[in-house]
Amino acid sequence: MQAWHFSETAYPYLPPADSYPSIRVSLPNKNYDPQKGAALYDRYLEEWQIADEEGLEIMLNEHHQTATCVDPAAPLMLAALARLTKRARLLILGNPIANRRQPIRVAEEMALIDVLSKGRLEAGFVRGVPYEISPANSNPVRMNERFWEALDLICKAWQNHDGPFSHEGRFFHHRNINIWPRQWQDPHPPVWVSTTSTSGAYEVGAHGFIQATFLTGWDITRKIFDSYRKGWREAGRGQDIPNHRLAYAALVYVGETEKEAHEGAEKLLWYVTANKVAPQYANPPGYVPVAANVAMMRGGEHPLSAFAKGASVEAAIRGGFMFAGTPEQVYQQFKRHNDYVGGYGHILNMGQAGFLEHEDTVKGIRNFARHVYPRLKEDFPHSRISGQPSDLPGEPPEKYMLYSSSTVKMERNVGGQLGSAGAR
Amino acid sequence: MQRSTVNIAGCEIEVHEEGSGAPLLYLHPGGGFRPTDAFIPLLAAKRRLICPSHPGFGRSALPDWIDSVDDLAHIYLELMDHYGIAKTDILGASIGGWITAEMATKAPERFSKIVFAGAVGVKTGPADKLDIPDIFVMSPADVPKIMFHDPSKFPFDPSKFTDEELSIQVRNRETLALYVWEPYMHNPKLPHRLQRIKAPTLFLRGGSDGLVSAAYMDAYAKLVPGAKTLTIPEAGHGPHQEQPQAFAKAVLDFLG
Hints:
Chain A has 17 helices and 13 strands. Chain A is of the alpha/beta class. Chain A has a single domain, classed as Alpha-Beta Barrel (TIM Barrel), CATH 3.20.20.30. In chain A, helix 2 packs parallel to helix 3 (103-116), helix 3 crosses helix 5 (143-159) and helix 6 (198-207) packs parallel to helix 7 (219-234). Chain B is of the alpha/beta class. Chain B has one domain: Rossmann fold (3-Layer(aba) Sandwich). Helix content of chain B is 31%, strand content 19%. Chain B has helices at 39-44, 69-82, 95-106, 143-147, 163-180, 214-222, 239-242, 244-255, and strands at residues 2-8, 11-18, 23-27, 48-52, 88-93, 111-117, 201-206, 228-232. The chains are: A alpha/beta, B alpha/beta. The A-B interface holds A 21, 25, 134, 137, 139-142, 145, 170, 278-281, 284-286, 290-291, 293-294, 297-298 and B 64, 67, 136-140, 158, 163, 166-167, 170-171, 173-178, 181-182.
């Protein structure tokens, strides 16, 4: 098991949410104070440095024109981290290549960071969430096609060492591809792709890249991983899928006591609850398949959106979006999730969000690194095979649940509202 | 009334035909072609109406290689070949107007008279303001307000449609995005080509159209030698829908 500390480097000092229609795309940057922003960058970088010292790996991502993630050029942040950290693997998840006009420029940026960090880069690629469409002025139709052409070209550019070659594809044209520097790792840095669709996961599996999925709970995660495993096998990569090909991102907070854990976990919910997005940014035409849009017109709702309306730590744990509690509780919650979905070898810890202050963030990182991570590494080594989903229910037994002290009695009798996240 | 499928350049295109007489090619707007629209029989009473669904709209296919209004213009010129129509009148609404403009600048000799209805396709205003409001980032609740003179007459109720009908509506919108995304709703080259049009031309719009402004239509019309303009009152971006009688009369009066 490898665990990755992940922060979206949010800017949380915003006016009340009912005073703006969307935290993304349209929120004016007059709400951003560069001095406060600089202090935030300092602390977020420091938290990554602490994760490095504590033996965790590092993950960061990129979004545009939003307060939820003020990292619109993740390779720049990654370059800083390459210098500030000593040991950790550096995962960018990822480069939004369906929205970047020049895949070769992305290949160059990644190669530079790989050399700068002496081979610590893990190069992730994403299609990009729907709210990225407007900021990038990117056509939401045929994004998958652009994504795969770009990724194939980037991998090819990394592996070419004998002078220029050309590419005249459907979406991208380069007459002279001959990147410098040559990346440190051979044949190239590990490639990650995040997707929350089964068709996407199948494709990632067929390519043998590392598949990450974010906050997809129980059944959707299982379906995505099943699809990955199917793609892997049908591409002739063998029957056994090493668990280190699969990654899951959850909100993670470990406290020494239940009370401490609950306070930290509650603040992490900001990541879900603050994501107020106007519908036109959340679903541009062509972003999801026609049938999914028809289902939405008929009143269907994504489990995460449904969850956000009544978000609570309890519901998040029951939904499989969050692992939080004492070290033992977190271990047991994680173990059940890992078993339920058939096994994965990377946990991407969303360990900071919104108003989770520096001190509490560091506490959460250290508690996880010192009291949970050693057991995970021991019990879920990368030599494990992914593919046998457990028959046990995913939801943790009561004693491994985390409740706020005031609701313990009531909740332990009533149970959670959300239950397992249904398939979309 | 007849619905058929024709293969043009490897693309299966659904074509609705109605009426008899001299041909009139109708190119639909971004919402797609609806054979139930009231203006259809009014035009078909006088003319042989030929109404293709653009690739990716209705039940027409969308091959991978098609992604622009320019592609559609070539396809429809070939469609005219397919029907043996050397020269025709043409009516294009909204994006259909843009396709019409592309066709008429490529082959001006093939059009006798042209009607643009709420047509998009050119950029006439300043760089820091969209000529056509961005319908894709507008609140869904606000879109009907700029589309219709009286939105209350056009409520959208998904329960009134079958899954297939809803699928077509969703796909139409998706295909529209594919064609008009960038540059948004226009071809920067078109203003330098429209002078080739020799056919008598009419630009019309609904008086309450919140997408195509009066200034936009006037600027567009000035690019076409001798073009006339007409405003249909109490209609939005779809005067053919909101004022079918006035719309059909305006079109037929002009075509003669």
